[in-house]
Design goal:
2 copies of one chain form a homodimer. Chain A is of the alpha+beta class and about 500 residues long. Chain A is about 35% helix and about 30% strand. Chain A contains 14 helices and 26 strands. In chain A, the strands form 6 sheets. An 11-stranded mixed beta sheet of chain A has the order 3-8-9-15-12-11-10-23-26-22-21, sandwiched between helices. The radius of gyration of chain A is 26 Å and the shape is globular. At the A-B interface, strand 2, helix 2, strand 3, strand 4 and helix 3 of A face strand 2, helix 2, strand 3, strand 4 and helix 3 of B. Bound molecules: zinc ion (2 copies). Chains A, B: It is an enzyme of class 6 (ligase).
Amino acid sequence: MAKKITDRSEDYSQWYQDVIREAKLADHSPVRGCMVIRPNGYALWENMKEALDGMFKETGHENAYFPLFIPKSFLSKEAQHVEGFAKECAVVTHSRLKSVDDGVEVDPDSRLEEELIVRPTSETIIWDAYRNWIQSYRDLPILINQWANVVRWEMRTRLFLRTMEFLWQEGHTAHATKEEAVEETERMLEVYRTFAEEYMAMPVKTGVKTESERFAGAVETYCIETLLQDNKALQAGTSHFLGQNFAKAFDVKFQSSEGSHEYVWATSWGVSTRLVGGLIMTHSDDQGLVIPPRLAPTQVVIVPIWKSDEQQENVLEYCDTIIEELKELDIRVKLDDRENYNPGWKFAEHEASGIPLRIAVGPRDLENHNVELARRDTLEKNIVDRDGLGERIEKTLKQIQIDLYDSAKKRIDENTHTVDSYEEFKEVIDEKGGFIYAHWDGSSETEEKIKDETKATIRCIPLNEGEEGKCMVTGKPSRQKVLFARSY
Amino acid sequence: MAKKITDRSEDYSQWYQDVIREAKLADHSPVRGCMVIRPNGYALWENMKEALDGMFKETGHENAYFPLFIPKSFLSKEAQHVEGFAKECAVVTHSRLKSVDDGVEVDPDSRLEEELIVRPTSETIIWDAYRNWIQSYRDLPILINQWANVVRWEMRTRLFLRTMEFLWQEGHTAHATKEEAVEETERMLEVYRTFAEEYMAMPVKTGVKTESERFAGAVETYCIETLLQDNKALQAGTSHFLGQNFAKAFDVKFQSSEGSHEYVWATSWGVSTRLVGGLIMTHSDDQGLVIPPRLAPTQVVIVPIWKSDEQQENVLEYCDTIIEELKELDIRVKLDDRENYNPGWKFAEHEASGIPLRIAVGPRDLENHNVELARRDTLEKNIVDRDGLGERIEKTLKQIQIDLYDSAKKRIDENTHTVDSYEEFKEVIDEKGGFIYAHWDGSSETEEKIKDETKATIRCIPLNEGEEGKCMVTGKPSRQKVLFARSY
Ligand SMILES: [Zn+2]
Ligand SMILES: [Zn+2]
């Protein structure tokens, strides 16, 4: 079989596209910058959603749904927000088409009085609603999350990592005190870190963004950042402390238990289908996708092999007992008994689509009371006893989850450097890439200069402050080292 | 406490709005015709989604996601489809705003070459993708469902029942043969019927639509129809056999196992947040929302009652044992121990929001080893023994589900009439409303005449054909009685 996936060492960007195509995760759509998420990709996103949704609910949040459209005037109510989001967005101006000779045309008579913006994020429409919901301290906190599609008119797109329309969740909370809101912001950052590391097996660094990289309208933006196989960083999730900015913009006050009227404190936080891109670039290899077992839609695939009808019957019966055993253990198992495809073809397909474990069963395995067990991550194959297979698989799935995390952690650690001079910084960023810790004087000018000269940005200012020092560029005092990288 | 919900007998439409407001299901939004689905409403929709999604997966379907935007030219590819859907829709014409003195304006330089339509339904964008996915009979069937938001520019909207943006699922399947596609259409109709009756406790009639009421682009539209408390019908779900119309419009052919190239057969089917409106108008009463237990986000609420601190401690401990027992039985239970609200206020709130069972526990209940158990549907209260409470509640929840269905069935049966003459028809429709079976000659002219004169439409042609007869209007031959009603 011809190799369908480009090697990473040859062309990483092409490899990424090949993996997505061969694993049937997504397609480009005829609408520039939008993607079609295929069943394999969507099932992965569904598992991510389910895990995150459970964590949100455990921390007291409820889901709700707000309108897709935002009146144009809403965007300009929060001064910084409009700067960040009004620029590139989808604008609805008309509400009707009319038939003409060769198709349909926009009916000029249907022009809207006020244009509508397809939401790039929902702070404004949500805070407009919160004004009606919040009167007293008894109405607080409001802890709401929304699963939705959003649109940002991106010029350079890449499947999952940056698309014009994407799926995400956005949490929007309202609190009586600053302390509570900051606590919530940090709590959700921790939820994201836990999800990334424990479900996606994707190690992340946490910290806050510099002023220039902050969310438009936020007082502080917390983030999780990971390092992908090509040594570029990916912002995988953000949690914003919004202060009273949106409460002031939408005039949302509450009566405190003492009777005073005060502005409400806010947070928002989100992760998106971009996580799927991060997952792919964290674990996959030249054979295709690798998915951590906790998120794999199918954890074990069974491929029966036979020649005669009699063999077929016996092999399938044997497989049935395995399926039953695995289902008892809540393992997501699938039998691939398609007759139109041969085993070799199936093996390649399951490898490309990243199923963590494959069991192959042929007539000889029946005789010997064995199965062949293959690990997707290591590509290791073993003949193992049918007895105790369920437990063995359960253990192996857990081990794969750990091994994937450990191996990603090792890769990221090896590609995280600390430098003392700007010269060393430029050398490392050019020759190795990766994460770099270095001192910075805290000014936007220096940050900008570094970005212009090296294409590296400050990914975050770590929360656990390190030692003081001197900025590698200006020599001015630096409170702590910050984390740099080139990024997606 | 002042009565916050208008009686149904007084003003049914106002009652509906009051229930939605008091149960905190949804709000009107500042975008005309769009709604904000509040946590209580969304949790109900989530439960519906979960049940339906399970049924879709059991029948072999997978979820996927297609773009929000459809290029304008796609809509005109299927001639009937464009007639039905191109008329009132949201049209994106620009991709950028620019800052001006007092806010933002649409940047005229960002005008799109081809306008984008916010999907009113996704047949066109999906069949464009299917062309790339389908080459051989081995690629069939494709059994895909999408959970999404869609937009139809409605002029007269009503929360849940008809909104400009709504949430729904749309199944889109592709098959090698006509028989398979028809079978799929009927299978999904049956899934919808089962869901409506077994989960929503909402009895429905099934049948096919007349030509004039058919989905734009369908060969046959199957539907489930229910009758609401005000004796108006509601179309609650549709399943369309699309023939080869979309395959021809988007040139989707497959190579059969014999080597010939043939157009693919299609179906599509959908239900939406409109179901929430149907649920409200099927079961609720003058006290507020009534939710069948199988879909209730909270099935049992416990209200502890105390005066002294010591009582509080003891009552809460007693409640804990109940919660533990109910959770063991997978019953969704919530403790309402808010200190800012008194028990009477809580009772009214839980009644308005439709929680099927309420347990009240005070100090005297502890002494007597009792609880007070109140049914939301019948408003019946009983002092019951603490021993065996879990089982009793489990049984009662099942009974409520049955009783709600039976009572809705009885109401619909009582309001379903059969008439022989047009005079009788007009009398019944004016004086009683409800479902009416009557003979019809099968022509669009007669259908139109009846609609003009009585505002009643043919809701469906029942699948189990009845006896032949003569049209009540024209006296021409009729193959069977069909089902009429005024509708939402
Ligand atoms: Zn180093
Ligand atoms: Zn009658």
